[in-house]
Amino acid sequence: MGFNLDDYEPVASRLDRFLKAHPDARIITDLVHYLSDVCVFKCELWLEGEIIATGWAEEVRGQGNVNKTSHLENCETGAVGRALANAGLSGSDFAKRPSREEMSKVQRMQGDTHITENSNVASEKQQNMIRAMCKSMGKVPPHNLQSFSKREASAYIDSLKAGETPAPSYDTPEEPF
Hints:
The protein has helices spanning about 10-20, 65-70, 70-85, 100-110, 115-120, 125-135, 150-160, and strands spanning about 25-35, 40-45, 50-60. The chain has two domains: about 5-120, Double Stranded RNA Binding Domain; about 120-165, no CATH class. It is built from seven helices and three strands; from the N terminus they run αβββαααααα. Helix content is about 40%, strand content about 20%. A three-stranded antiparallel β-sheet has the order 1-2-3, with helices on one face. It is of the alpha+beta class.
């Protein structure tokens, strides 16, 4: 059964809403397991000295293109996303409780090419090109690269080719974590 990643909200958007509503909140992540390229992160959301939600995530190095270079970061983001969903920040449609990043993992696990064809998310080829170009220029690729649309990825590539430093692109007006 196919789905469209554009129907799912990125963790950065959820986090932005949460922090705007609760500027004194604490978000604590902990790498609780790392062995044989498998990592597990736990995230705790704290308000007024109490844990209001937790979230867990697991990723395997090399499982999909994102996890070839960023499995730890991807796992931590997933844990934050789960905690935010458990705190009630699941987007406008409760049926869409998983984050875009979680659904990207489903896509990687299923190897479902139908999803990619119907999605507006940047292709793996675009993402890999951005990573390679940034690396060759001594720049750090955008941490939210996996949530770029095809159009955003193309514009970013064009800017890199022109020797410009592209402005970060976010789904929210604030810079995400």
